[in-house]
Predict the 3D structure of the following.
Amino acid sequence: MIVLFALMGPGSCDAQSACSWGAGATRNIMWTAARAILYVTPLGLFVTWVLPWRSRWTAARRRAAAFALLPHAVIAADLLPLLIFSN
Protein backbone atom coordinates (compact mmCIF):
# COMPACT_ATOMS: atom_id res chain seq x y z
CA MET A 1 0.00 0.00 0.00
CA ILE A 2 2.91 2.33 0.73
CA VAL A 3 4.26 1.75 -2.76
CA LEU A 4 0.96 2.60 -4.38
CA PHE A 5 0.64 5.81 -2.40
CA ALA A 6 4.28 6.67 -3.07
CA LEU A 7 3.78 6.17 -6.78
CA MET A 8 0.75 8.46 -6.79
CA GLY A 9 2.01 11.08 -4.38
CA PRO A 10 4.82 13.41 -5.43
CA GLY A 11 3.92 14.51 -8.92
CA SER A 12 2.57 12.47 -11.78
CA CYS A 13 4.63 10.88 -14.52
CA ASP A 14 2.26 10.49 -17.40
CA ALA A 15 2.55 11.22 -21.13
CA GLN A 16 1.87 14.95 -20.73
CA SER A 17 4.33 15.69 -17.93
CA ALA A 18 7.76 14.13 -17.92
CA CYS A 19 9.39 12.88 -14.73
CA SER A 20 12.91 13.54 -13.69
CA TRP A 21 15.23 10.60 -14.30
CA GLY A 22 15.73 9.99 -10.56
CA ALA A 23 12.02 9.88 -9.81
CA GLY A 24 11.33 7.50 -12.68
CA ALA A 25 14.17 5.17 -11.73
CA THR A 26 13.15 5.17 -8.07
CA ARG A 27 9.56 4.39 -8.96
CA ASN A 28 10.67 1.53 -11.20
CA ILE A 29 12.79 0.05 -8.40
CA MET A 30 9.91 0.34 -5.94
CA TRP A 31 7.44 -1.21 -8.37
CA THR A 32 9.80 -4.12 -9.09
CA ALA A 33 10.31 -4.69 -5.35
CA ALA A 34 6.55 -4.59 -4.79
CA ARG A 35 6.05 -7.30 -7.41
CA ALA A 36 8.92 -9.35 -5.92
CA ILE A 37 7.22 -9.36 -2.51
CA LEU A 38 4.66 -11.82 -3.87
CA TYR A 39 7.37 -14.38 -4.64
CA VAL A 40 10.41 -13.64 -2.49
CA THR A 41 8.72 -13.30 0.90
CA PRO A 42 6.72 -16.57 0.83
CA LEU A 43 9.74 -18.42 -0.58
CA GLY A 44 12.06 -17.12 2.13
CA LEU A 45 9.58 -17.88 4.90
CA PHE A 46 8.94 -21.36 3.50
CA VAL A 47 12.67 -22.11 3.42
CA THR A 48 12.97 -20.82 6.97
CA TRP A 49 10.17 -23.12 8.08
CA VAL A 50 11.42 -26.20 6.17
CA LEU A 51 15.03 -26.10 7.40
CA PRO A 52 15.79 -28.38 10.35
CA TRP A 53 15.33 -26.80 13.77
CA ARG A 54 18.80 -27.60 15.04
CA SER A 55 21.40 -25.10 16.16
CA ARG A 56 23.53 -26.03 13.15
CA TRP A 57 20.93 -24.52 10.79
CA THR A 58 20.33 -21.30 12.74
CA ALA A 59 22.50 -19.16 10.44
CA ALA A 60 20.78 -20.50 7.32
CA ARG A 61 17.35 -19.82 8.80
CA ARG A 62 18.39 -16.26 9.67
CA ARG A 63 19.67 -15.68 6.14
CA ALA A 64 16.43 -17.02 4.67
CA ALA A 65 14.40 -14.74 6.95
CA ALA A 66 16.54 -11.75 5.92
CA PHE A 67 16.04 -12.73 2.27
CA ALA A 68 12.28 -12.75 2.87
CA LEU A 69 12.42 -9.15 4.12
CA LEU A 70 14.69 -7.88 1.34
CA PRO A 71 11.94 -6.43 -0.93
CA HIS A 72 10.40 -4.66 2.06
CA ALA A 73 13.76 -3.11 2.92
CA VAL A 74 14.26 -1.95 -0.68
CA ILE A 75 10.89 -0.21 -0.65
CA ALA A 76 11.59 1.46 2.69
CA ALA A 77 15.02 2.59 1.47
CA ASP A 78 13.56 4.09 -1.71
CA LEU A 79 10.99 6.30 0.00
CA LEU A 80 13.48 9.06 0.79
CA PRO A 81 15.02 9.20 -2.73
CA LEU A 82 11.51 9.31 -4.16
CA LEU A 83 10.78 12.42 -2.12
CA ILE A 84 14.14 13.98 -3.07
CA PHE A 85 13.86 13.33 -6.82
CA SER A 86 10.15 14.06 -7.16
CA ASN A 87 8.96 16.96 -9.29
Notes: The helical segments are 2-8, 21-50, 58-68, 70-85.
